[in-house]
Specification:
The structure is a single chain. Strand 36 (574-578) and strand 37 (582-587) form a beta hairpin. It is globular, with a radius of gyration of 29 Å. The protein has a five-stranded antiparallel beta sheet with strand order 3-5-6-7-8, covered by helices on one side. By secondary structure, the chain is an alpha+beta fold. The chain contains eight helices and 37 strands.
Amino acid sequence: MEHPSAAALSGSAERVFHHTGGTAKTGARPWPALVLVAAFWIARAVPRAAGATMFAQFMTQMAASAVLVLGFLGWWTFHRRIPRGEKLAGWGALVGGGVAAGFLAPAQGGFALALASVPWVFTLWGLWALVAARLSPAARRPALVLALLAPWSAFLLIRFEGVTGDARPVMHWRWTPTSEQVYLEERAREAAAEPAPVVTASVAEAEWPGFRGPDRSGEARGVHLATDWDAHPPKLLWRRKVGPAWSSLALAGERLLTQEQRGETEAVLCLDASTGRELWSHLETARFEDEQGGPGPRATPSIADGRVFALGATGRLHALDLVTGERVWTRDVAAESKATLPIWGFASSPLVVGGRVIVFAGGDAETSLRAYDAGTGEPVWQGPGGADSYSSPQTFELEGATQLLFAANDGLRAVDPATGALLWRFAPEAHGMLPPCLQPHAAGPGRFLVAGEGGTTALEVRREGEGWRATELWSSRALKPTFDDFVLHAGFLYGFDAGIFCCVDASSGERRWKEGRYGYGQVLLVPDAEALLVAAEDGEAVLLAADPGGPRELGRFQAITGKTWNHPVIAGGRLFLRNGEELASYALVDPASER
């Protein structure tokens, strides 16, 4: 009788051991999966901790996710020690759960759902691989399916409402109403209970005529405020809910202008600045929404000559009567420029200069800047504005000539505001991957600063014969803002470098300090108080000293709640701050008034 070989006996014993639920040699070793999972979370955490730019963090997360998914699935598919039935169960739960989640998730899901859920799916998969060797064959497969379906199922209970500045999903329980729904319900109740407001016929000069103030520099001049907020805290005057939008505010007398989304309607909204009560609203059937920023208009209205000029997120430009809100004229600038809708909507705040309204309309790079007659809305000129931008036109005086500067995807250019003719063009080396969202800053006669997530560049512009020549003075990565703006005071820049507040020498680009994690917020300069008002991303108002020697907080308080990317306004002794949920007004104490 022939005896079985040792190898045969060993194989038989191993099969019996598997069948009886032993813990040795049951499937693949889990360490490749665990290494991939750990590498993903490290790659996600390190750029954020190191202060990398928003774009760098996002791209790192995308690359780490791709490596995790491809590496994990390769290990799972081709490892010989994973039984075929478990492989099929894993693939089935992954694909089936993902497809079901895609169909069943709220409308805001999509990309945000994948961004948030996929890492957790593979993390639980890796943990299953760690404990699978201790499970019986009968228990391993159900445990695997449960581990993969659990995160998909959990995320079906969540609604995604965009992302923070560093690309973290903003999540709420699916069954809770959105802030927009709460606002619309509140409006319906108020409309049924209150009579329509009486609109007076007074028109005052605009103290804060539009985006970032009178000259778009982000400075609140002539403002004297108490810098000790412990002794003299800002006093809440009123607070109200608003519809979603990333618009800022404009102020003329007691008329406060902004934009918001109301369901399928965009609204230009005029409020009583002293009470927050609505005076009038102009409604237009339009809705824009993206998965990062959410719904609502992006641009800020401009006030000039008794009229309001507002650009909606889908590219419709309105001229309205400041007193009544009645339409004077409307142009569909996107249709006229044959532009496709930008990823984050039209965000260029209209500029009114020389009786013309100038906006970025997209489309052909050589005709994307468009000017319209402020009185009639008739086209006046079209000029080179680049192919892609979320910046706004701005005028500067240069050697006695008024020039309109505009930052686009291919650099900074200047045009004649009367004709749209190109005067000069400059492409900084420190260019980012994202289209510009910020304004150029004047840094002295003939000197300008342009910044984005690629860094900051200083240039000098001089006449050269019949034309102009722009020359780079320095370029630095010490300040890399994205949509969170910066200001210039006494030779120093103050702003957000990848979400961390910092100070940079405007003469050299050398960083003086970097401290203060306020998220991706906005900053406003109060030069007479030698202070900076920071609107933090979480809705806090923070007062800082404009001091190149080091960061000094003078006070802070929670002004509004919710994600705050909107630019703050200080005018008439009051702070106005809004986001996509709330708008509030605070009285700022003037030390002189208390003497």
